[in-house]
Amino acid sequence: MIEHLAALQVVIPLLCAPICMLVRYRDWAWIVALFGSWACLVISWLLLQQVIVGDPISYHMGNWAPPLGIEYRVDTVNAFVLLIVSAIGAVVTPYARESVRAEFGVNRVYLFYTSYMLCLCGLLGVTITGDAFNLFVFLEISSLSSYVLIAMGKDRRALTASYQYLVLGTIGATFIVIGIGLLYAETGTLNMEDLAKRLADQPLSRTVGAAFGFLVVGISLKLALFPLHLWLPNAYTYAPSVVSAFLAATATKVAVYVLLRFLFSIFNVKLSFGVMPLDTILLVLSVIAMFAASAVAIFQPDIKRMLAYSSVAQIGYMVLGISFANVNGIAAGIIHLFNHALMKGGMFLALGCVFYQIASVRLDDMAGLGKRMPWTMAAFVVGGLSLIGVPLTVGFVSKWYLVVGALDRGWWFAALLILLSSLLAVVYIWRVVEVAYLKPAPENAGDIEDAPPSMLIPTWILIGASVFFGINTDLTVGVAKQAAMQLLGAGG
Amino acid sequence: MTGGTAVAFAIGLPIFGMVLILLNDRYPNLRDAITLATSACLALIVFGLVPEVTSGGRPGFVLAEIVPGLAIAFEVEPLGMLFAMVASGLWVVTTFYSIGYMRSHHEENQTRFYACFAIAISSAMGICFSANMLTLFIFYEILTISTYPLVIHSETKDAVKAGRTYLGILIGTSIAFLLMAIIWTWFLTGTLDFTPGGILKGKAEGPILGLLLFLYMYGIGKAALMPIHRWLPAAMVAPTPVSALLHAVAVVKAGVFTVLKVIVYIFGIDTLAGIGQDDWLMYIAAFTVIVASCVALTKDNLKARLAYSTVSQLSYIVLGAALANSIGIIGGGMHIAMHAFGKITLFFCAGAILVASHKTEISEMDGLGRVMPFTFIAFLIGSLSVIGLPPLGGSWSKWYLMLSAAEANLIFFMIVFMASSLLNIAYLMPLVARGFFLPERKDDHHDDHHEEVDFWNGVRFGKIKEAPPFCLFAMTITSAGCILLFFYADRIYKMLAPVAGIQG
Amino acid sequence: MAAVGLYNYWIVVFLMMAGFYIVIAHDNLVKKIVGLNIFQASVFVMYITFGKVQGGTAPIIADGVTTYSNPLPHVLILTAIVVGVATTALGLALVVRINEAYGTIEEDEIHDQDDDT
Fold it and tell me: Is A385 an interface residue toward B (CB < 8 Å)?
């Protein structure tokens, strides 16, 4: 059993999906999903424990030896990402029960769990696989199911948002296929490790250069790097609350992982940042993302959309860390990947609670909520403080390592920009605080209670974790540093 | 109780008090009693630490490690001890005052007020006792956030607007500059511990040190160096006890305290004096001293005038630190205590006037001294201490600061100190003079139909209409403190001598 | 001559650009899907092309044949086609739903309706 963990990580949610479909009854489907997501969490935890102390795990699908067979390869980097994704999945599923019941037609609930399990399966698959083409397949599984999830939103604009995402996402995925194809044409292999070896041995050819370009653009589209982020705000705004929380906390993170994997493991630092001027490009784009997206977030009347733009900005921080191409910078990127998943996931869940009670997430409708839904709004505020980067929250740890990474690289102006841009976060978070706490509730507002415990507890688990990991950084920083060294070491 | 536990208690006790305060939301008397008890216990604990620290002990403990090599750790040294004594001692007095003021003024949300107050004091204790720059920074930020609900206490439009300025400047400067400086220091030296003699010596070139100094000085927004002083006048919308303790003592002194700490323990005064990168800081501080005093002259609102006076007085301390010699550090440290007592008295009086006669503008206060003699005498004592006349505490710190300028051979700054004293007279004395010597205004009787006077909201005795007894009591203590400090200044000197590198 | 010999790739580039252009330029949601399909098809052609080995035959073991085309890209592209079909199906399903919700499948009209509300 234990040696098949790597396969089970993907197979369990994959099997749960059709089961959800077959049982149809909404609570049973929920139980299946709950089982699936919690099993994934356990497996990813076990995998991480194994790779922290030992060598990477290599699992041969169907006993076909790599490089011909498909290899699942778990090292510290993706074990950590697996843990993030499955942990978020495990927290979101219990929350989903109430929220989904309220936001979906009763008859469609089981469909939600089906696509949700598929999406989880896809994301985990992208992360765990050691085969470039297999990565594309899983990417498409996760993307297709997330189009479905987004389209389930109540607002009709969810449909157009989903459609827009579908078109852009498919273009991005196709770019990735082109890149992988070109790499295959050049090297004759699809196994990542093999690719890395063969690429390191030969001088840069035009094919490899083209492959590099296609891959970077395709992945950037998936991770919503400015200016390829256009699909993200609408998708997150109109998707059901659970879906926004889940996707915001996982989908873009997995895409960041893919970028890391390609830039450092498959290509190498010399090629990515030496021959190709990618560091400058990523630096400029991510800085623009940090400022432009945060500035746009300030003016959003819809708080979900505000958080969506804030996500674009936060992705900027991660990519910025990657662009430093040193241990501290990459570690900062990975730490922020984890931290942002916690805080943004928690904040979206809190908004889900708000939506559950007042059926709106517009700023004007949130007046006086601080007193009417104290627990929910407190979670939102703590998450917001973390987003700003106040000490004792995870956001602070991320900022700390990002700035150290920038100084390490000698880019002190970038360090200053990181800190300046977090001031914009103060502005958009404080807008909400002022309205929720200082504006009296409207006259006609009925008496409402706080959200049910089954929603509040998952929200507070994520928010609590974002404080806990702000104080105890052993896990995050330790693993992220190890992962960063592995990534840099692999590139030689 | 060992030193380490005492430190832990000093930081934890107010938090515990806050929880009790929140739990007793429905029982105002019990709640206020808890606040009083908490503050008294805190003062006892803090004063209990004094013998150990003066005899050279450095009690402390490590709470948690945030980043490998960087812990949340505490260690008491004399400068922090002094600040902690001032803050915790004055908290007791201010609590008395708050009870009188808040009840008489019928403020809303009193539970939130006392709870946030307790957190603010806890974080001030954290700042006092922190063993490294990271810990200090963390509590510095908590202090900012916990005082925000106090600033916007009234929840009016103006208060919310002022709250924005307050938060914007304090958070903005601290994240953009202070954090940058801290991380940079860490990057250069691999440590953030407060070390006698500084940690930056030999780790960086002159220009980099200059840049770091700039980042630190403008990162510490709470020190209210111009032009980032705007938050302090803005914070005056808060209830008077907040202005008194937090915006004349805890918060602003936390700022200058941090400045002193950074200069003494991060840069090291020898390093700083050696590189000559701090001239600009002296001139900026001198500029702030003079200009803020001039602005104070133009303000008719009493609290605004006092706020600008605080801005000016804070720069005394920054200037003392920037002079980078032992006497300057002692003078600066001493001024933390001296100015605290003087200014808190003045704010208490401003609040008392507001409560008893509902007046905020100086021009309306003609003849008020004869109605509120007690308050005005306290105001006189506080003013004289801030001006720096013997036999009041403020004279000593000014004396040492002037000596420091003389030692550095910088006559210009001696002139600045003297000119500023004259300006102090010009903006503080008119109120006393108006109060006692000008005839009362005729149109001021609109509040004669005032409600029943009871124990909680005032004292009436013939023509005399004074503030509630709790407030009067608090003013008595602080003005007595101003006088006592004159006679006990040598103790402070002895206590601070090791910090400045003088053998006591 | 070399450039002409690689005519497959010219076709790939032409299809890719044509498909991309349709996606960007057309307002009609169904046409966008068609464009997307053409775009993907170009990639299929690309994969199949570099699976071809000069002088090779279909990769089925037979007597007297020593050179085979590379079967792997073909297999890969079978998967890619499946993905493409799924995408198209989902896209068209979304268009149907959009048509039900808005009564139109023209992008600009949909935007107008959204702006009004």
Answer: yes
